[in-house]
Design brief:
Elements: E1 3-7, H1 11-28, E2 52-59, E3 62-71, H2 86-91, E4 111-119, H3 127-143, E5 148-154, H4 158-163, E6 167-168, E7 173-175, E8 180-188, H5 189-197, E9 213-217, E10 222-224, E11 232-238, E12 241-247, E13 251-258, E14 263-264, E15 278-281, E16 285-291, H6 292-301, H7 306-329, H8 332-346, E17 348-349, E18 357-359, H9 363-370, H10 374-386, E19 390-392, E20 397-399, H11 422-425
Helix pairs in contact: 3-5, 8-9, 9-10
């Protein structure tokens, strides 16, 4: 079942975060004496501050993980009770010139801390969930304007934080209250975001990333179904997603095969009409999601963010009109050529051969995109491969460097007895 990771906004979601801490730290791990506290909620005075943020993960409606993020204030940070960060705070201003235009001319860093990471036992082996929690934490820290993030963690987990861009400030030290060695670490939010988003391509929703939630899926899990009322748009962080719709009963037509950085489901941000297609994770995937209420709030405060998104809407509408015309009136070879061009646009560079583009789908996927029989599609691909345009396997189509200059497969080279007639594809 998909796992949704979000910033707690409602009283119920905040209460879930406090309950999760108690459930994990006290009940499961036996810390704080291992005895349940009244109310089964683990709370300290920082939870009463307006500068605290709770990230919560849900599997369906069940809370499974949480993390607390705190922006610095006159009361300090929770980690200040475990380690003296005074020297690091004094040196942090030297980092500001290199943190981007928003920090130019400023001489006072803004600190935040991350902690209270609590993951229930059955989900602790889900590394994808843990990664998504930290990615969410990075965008929250960036959203509230932190220049630096400080943490104090059990020494066994320090390696994970180093991979996130944090630097150890000293050797491990013993903490009597926790009953374990801990290590203080620190880093800039820019480094944290660099790990979280990496080389994610820019999209029409990139300016909304401070409002994103995250969705973690296993291969084959459904994101939404045709006919659902949608409230979210999605950007693929990792993985692959298939967009499809039903036609002629149970027959399924693939509209798109999407990968890292691709945007889909964006019409749900503008209306509450049923989804026109279904979306399914083809492999284990992580998505960034934006809900309609956050989108509308952001547009109210930053109307300039809408321009790029409306251009995407216009482009999608033209593409769908073109697809409808091709499926209604084109010969099978023309439909396959149209689908192959769509696949090429969705392809990404091969890691071992950067000059080749690879579409992560084979003959079956292309057949679904073109509404053409799979046997005919294989014949088409074999002819194209013989002509030096591409190479293919059951799971991939590789576009060779000079493929664009090759001649398309002629319609009369296909034996289209198995292909659907144009009127059946309309």
């Amino acid at each position: 079942m998909p796992i949704r990771i979000k910033l707690a906004r409602s009283p119920k979601e905040i209460d879930d975060a406090l309950w999760l801490r108690h459930e994990v730290f006290v009940i499961e791990d036996g810390k704080f004496g291992g005895k349940p506290v009244p109310g089964h909620r683990l709370v300290d005075h920082f939870d009463a501050f307006p500068s605290v943020y709770h990230v919560v993960a849900y599997e369906h409606a069940e809370p499974v993980a949480t993390m607390r993020l705190v922006k610095d204030s006159e009361a300090g940070l929770p980690v200040d009770e475990l380690y003296d960060f005074a020297e690091y705070r004094r040196q942090a201003s030297d980092d500001l010139p290199g943190l981007g235009p928003e920090w130019q001319g400023r001489d006072t860093p803004v600190f935040g801390s991350a902690g209270m990471l609590a993951i229930r036992g059955p989900w602790r082996r889900r590394r994808d969930v843990i990664r998504a929690m930290f990615r969410m934490a990075a965008t929250v820290c960036q959203g509230y304007g932190a220049s630096h993030v400080v943490v104090v963690v059990n020494f066994e987990t320090a390696g994970m934080y180093r991979r996130l861009g944090f630097t150890e400030l000293c050797d491990k030290i013993w903490n009597e209250e926790i009953g374990n060695h801990v290590i203080p670490l620190a880093g800039t939010t820019r480094q944290f975001i660099g790990w979280a988003l990496g080389d994610l391509p820019d999209t029409a929703l990139s300016s909304f990333k401070d409002s994103f939630e995250r969705l973690v899926l296993r291969s084959g899990e459904l994101i939404f179904s045709e006919g659902d009322i949608g409230e979210h748009a999605y950007v693929i962080e990792t993985g692959e997603v298939r967009i499809s719709r039903k036609r002629d009963g149970d027959q399924e037509l693939t509209l798109a095969h999407l990968g890292r950085g691709d945007l889909f489901g964006e019409l749900a941000l503008l209306d509450d009409q049923p989804r026109a297609a279904s979306a399914t994770a083809l492999v284990d995937s992580e998505l960034m999601t934006l809900d309609r209420s956050s989108f509308e709030s952001q547009l109210h405060n930053h109307p300039e963010r809408a321009r790029r998104l409306f251009k995407v809407f216009a482009s999608r509408m033209r593409s769908m009109d073109e697809l409808a015309m091709v499926l209604a009136f084109a010969h099978p070879a023309q439909r396959l050529e149209f689908a192959l061009e769509a696949a090429r646009k969705q392809a990404t560079p091969d890691r071992s051969k950067p000059d080749e583009l690879v579409f992560r789908g084979g003959p079956k996927e292309l057949a679904l995109m073109a509404a053409v029989d799979e046997q005919v599609t294989r014949q088409y691909l074999e002819t194209a491969m013989a002509g030096g345009r591409l190479a293919f396997s059951e799971r991939h189509i590789a576009f060779l460097p000079d493929a664009a200059t090759r001649t398309p497969v002629a319609a009369d080279t296909l034996h289209d007895a198995h292909a659907q007639p144009p009127e059946a594809a309309a």
